[in-house]
Design a protein that fits this description.
about 500 residues, about 10% strand, alpha+beta, 3-stranded antiparallel sheet, 4 domains, Arc Repressor Mutant, subunit A
Length: about 500
């Protein structure tokens, strides 16, 4: 048997320690970053606050920077070799490059406020649970992507096809069947009900997950499956007649339903969400038609590499004492770690400002008016291409960062919206269409509500080309009952 030798070339990309560090901190909001810095300082004595620099900066504020991001590696490797010139490394001018303080920021605390919101941070525990499932790495990536698209109630409002298309573009090709398979696994995670497309499915997932089901449980399941319409308008006579149950049995079944969580994501007060403090990462200030973006400054003084450690490193490295030479290796690792950490913070700031400025530029009209209808269609890909970055970097920033405006504090991801074509050839945001749809329902004859088909026709008259099934989808997302429900409620 002949032995055949062959050579193949394989292109691999290995992330540097600094790149991994930057990736980890890019997704951190302000409060979490403060804690991360505190943790890093606790384990690295070469990091310290520059209180002198803080005092000087308050007397002479820095001008706003205009940072740019390129497609080069985020951070140069910057490793200190054995024959590194310590004298150059200790040069005071050089050390000035390794101080961290937020630039392009608002220093006046009165312009920034703490916001108390109900906690919607349910994604991290879900991703942790996902990692424990016996699934492939690709399935874990798909699962994390799905989890990050859930709304604040924990519902998946987007179609399987849309998710498959976007994931295929951003990461790797995936079929709708693969997405649906992973979604079904997500629906088994805690809290049960996560990943449902609507309230009905959410409640049914919780009931069907019960290990011990009683007659009341089965009655509740039947009511949700067959009589959701009647339940919504409290038409209990039809339910009792179909199930052949009396008032007491009906109340027992309804009690089962009332115990369920309609918002497993934790956005409603009834779901037990805890109030959390939000520190806006950005502030947008408007004066006339001028819109300015500021990165909110950190509460702590700027970071720098410890003077004591740099002096010890310089001294010990020249010593002939073996123990001191060994100590210099430890000190060198700490100084090197401090340098990397400060570089990562500096790069994080530049990337954040670059991404935020691109978003504000697109949504300038919204920041002036505060009207969601003025949000332009915008997707992650557009911003990524404009700043010559990748979609995952943009996603890490917008998914957890808050921006303070004159109209309230909102998540940056809410500034992204899909678009629809009008009969005039214009592209408008789906939020604008939903606003017009809501106006149609609010002004309808309550005794003779509009059907989805009629709403679609009205929207067409207003140049919004939209199908009946899309009207139904948007109506559900706006929590607007169907025509029959609205008519019964008005009776």
């Amino acid at each position: 048997m002949a032995i055949i030798q062959s050579q193949t070339q394989k292109l691999t990309q290995k992330l540097t320690h600094q790149q991994i560090q930057l990736i980890n901190i890019l997704g951190l909001p302000t409060i979490a970053l403060e804690q991360h810095i505190a943790n890093e300082m606790a384990i690295n004595p070469a990091l310290e606050f520059d209180t002198v620099e803080k005092e000087n900066s308050e007397e002479d504020p820095q001008e706003n920077n205009e940072p740019e991001i390129t497609n080069e590696d985020f951070i140069s490797e910057g490793k200190l070799g054995e024959d590194y010139d310590y004298k150059d490394y200790m040069d005071r001018d050089s050390l000035d490059d390794y101080k961290y303080e937020a630039n392009n920021h608002v220093k006046d605390d009165e312009k920034r406020e703490q916001v108390f919101l109900e906690s919607h941070d349910f994604t991290a525990p879900l991703i942790s649970q996902l990692g424990l499932l016996p699934i492939t790495d690709k399935e874990k990536e798909i699962g994390a992507y799905i989890i990050n698209t859930l709304d604040n109630d924990g519902y998946l409002r987007r179609s399987i096809g849309d998710i498959a298309d976007e994931f295929s573009f951003v990461t790797d090709f995936v079929t709708e069947e693969e997405v649906e398979s992973v979604l079904n696994k997500i629906k088994t995670l805690d809290p049960i009900g996560i990943g449902a497309k609507n309230l009905k499915e959410c409640l049914l997932l919780q009931l069907n997950a019960k290990k011990e089901k009683t007659k009341d449980t089965y009655n509740a399941i039947y009511i949700l499956e067959k009589h959701m319409d009647e339940l919504s308008v409290k038409n209990f006579d039809i339910i009792k007649k179909t199930l052949k149950i009396d008032n007491e049995e009906l109340q027992d079944a309804l009690s089962e339903i009332k115990k369920l969580n309609p918002a497993p994501g934790g956005s409603s007060k009834e779901s037990g969400g805890k109030a959390i403090t939000i520190e806006p990462d950005f502030t947008v200030m408007v004066e006339g038609d001028k819109v300015e973006l500021f990165l909110n400054s950190s509460k702590h003084p700027p970071l720098k590499i410890s003077d004591d450690y740099t002096e010890m490193l310089n001294s010990y490295s020249k010593s002939k004492d073996k123990s001191l030479r060994e100590a210099s290796n430890f000190i060198k690792s700490k100084v090197e770690g401090a340098k990397w950490f400060i570089e990562a913070l500096q790069q994080r700031e530049k990337v954040m400002i670059t991404v935020a400025k691109a978003i504000v530029k697109h949504q300038k009209k919204f920041f002036i008016t505060g009207d969601e209808a003025d949000l332009k269609p915008l997707i992650l890909k557009t911003i990524a291409e404009e700043i010559d970055s990748d979609i995952s970097t943009v996603s890490r920033i917008v998914i957890s960062k808050y921006i303070q405006t004159a109209y309230g504090t909102l998540l940056m991801k809410h500034l992204f919206t899909e678009g629809l074509s009008t009969t005039n050839g214009e592209i408008v945001s789906t939020k604008e269409v939903k606003k017009v749809l809501l106006e149609c329902v609010n002004t309808e004859d309550k005794n003779n509500p509009l059907s989805d088909e009629q709403i679609a026709n009205l929207l067409m008259q207003k140049t919004y080309s939209i199908a009946r099934r899309t009207v139904a989808k948007y109506r559900e997302e706006l929590n607007i009952p169907s025509k029959n429900f609205r008519k019964a409620a008005a009776a």
